[in-house]
Structures are given as structure tokens and as C-alpha cells.
User: Which sequence fits this backbone?
């Protein structure tokens, strides 16, 4: 069965069962609400939602240079979780973290979660989104998620060897993520 993928990494300090401040950087986009809550529970630090920083009201994109400066600032601290998948800044975020956690979630589950999110927040701005960006059913985003297993997922797997001394963990279900978080919380 084809899969969709989400990716995040643990930031400046290594994750630990005993750390109270464990930094992470999300580089993904698949059912983030469930995963975000689990991660928040496991790492006990605030999540920074990239969508809040990338989008301006009415779905206007942040200019590239401004966006890169924002990513540098967001990942400059010792403790952080960055939630979102913006391929143009993936390398910056991986460079700033210690551990990459690759969520290889089925395409079917991702599609279900997108539909559920679209219906839940229809006509409203999601809590993890920039003000003025009303939730919409976005066919371009659906196509991107659908094609991700054949593009983004393979690109990340191919780049694994370029991650240097980063820990690289693959989790393929919510259950696997919960089991992982039980070892670090």
C-alpha cells in the first residue's frame, strides 16, 4: 500500500526520558493534531506551528528571504517543536536538530485526516493557522499529499545519508509514535 509521510526532528539537545525541556522540529504534514498532542505530552514543550508564520491573512505566502529568516529565528533556541512541512526549509531545520523522526503514515489515513480537518474547521481559522486564513478544501494540497509518497518521501529517504550524525527514527503508525513517546516521557 502506498504511504504518505510526515517528518520531524529533535532539536538542539538530545531527547531523554529525564529531560523536562526536549526540543523538536516537525517537518511534516500528516494528521498533525493527534501527533502534535502526543508529541507535546512526550516532550513537554510548546509547539511552533509553521503555518502560523508562513501564511499571512487570506492565504498570502511569506516572501522566501523573510521565511528563511523566520526559520533561523524559530530554530535558534535550545528547546522547540516546529510543526509543518515546508520543503524549501527542510535542510535548515534538519541542520538545527539532533534527531529526525520520520512518520510514514498510510495515504488513506492522511486523506481521512485532511477531510476531517476540512469539515471540522470549515469556515473558521484552525488553532494552528495564521489569523485570517479560513479553512478550505484545497485540491492542490490534496494532490500534494497524494503524490508525496512518490516524491517527498523518496527524497527524504534518499537524503538520509546526508543527515550526518542525526538519529533517524521511522515510525509508521500512531501506535508506533505512542510507543516511542512512552520511552521519552
Assistant:
Amino acid at each position: 500500500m502506498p504511504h504518505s509521510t510526515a517528518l520531524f526532528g529533535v532539536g538542539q539537545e538530545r531527547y531523554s526520558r529525564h529531560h523536562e525541556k526536549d526540543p523538536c522540529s516537525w517537518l511534516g504534514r500528516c494528521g498533525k493534531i493527534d501527533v502534535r498532542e502526543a508529541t507535546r505530552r512526550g516532550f513537554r514543550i510548546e509547539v511552533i506551528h509553521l503555518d502560523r508564520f508562513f501564511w499571512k491573512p487570506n492565504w498570502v505566502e511569506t516572501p522566501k528571504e523573510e521565511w528563511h529568516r523566520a526559520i533561523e529565528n524559530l530554530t535558534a533556541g535550545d528547546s522547540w517543536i516546529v510543526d509543518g512541512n515546508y520543503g524549501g526549509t527542510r535542510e535548515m531545520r534538519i541542520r538545527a536538530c539532533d534527531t529526525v523522526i520520520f512518520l510514514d503514515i498510510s495515504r488513506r489515513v492522511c486523506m481521512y485526516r485532511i477531510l476531517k480537518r476540512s469539515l471540522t474547521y470549515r469556515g473558521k481559522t484552525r488553532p494552528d493557522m495564521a489569523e485570517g486564513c479560513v479553512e478550505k478544501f484545497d485540491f492542490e494540497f490534496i494532490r500534494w499529499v497524494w503524490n508525496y509518497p512518490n516524491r517527498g518521501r523518496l527524497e527524504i529517504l534518499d537524503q538520509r545519508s546526508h543527515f550526518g550524525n542525526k538519529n533517524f527514527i521511522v515510525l509508521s503508525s500512531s501506535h508506533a509514535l505512542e510507543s516511542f513517546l512512552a520511552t521519552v516521557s
In short: Confidence is low (pLDDT under 50) at residues 1-29. The two ends are 32 Å apart (CA to CA). Strands lie at 3-10, 24-26, 47-49, 55-56, 60-61, 81-83, 99-106, 167-171.
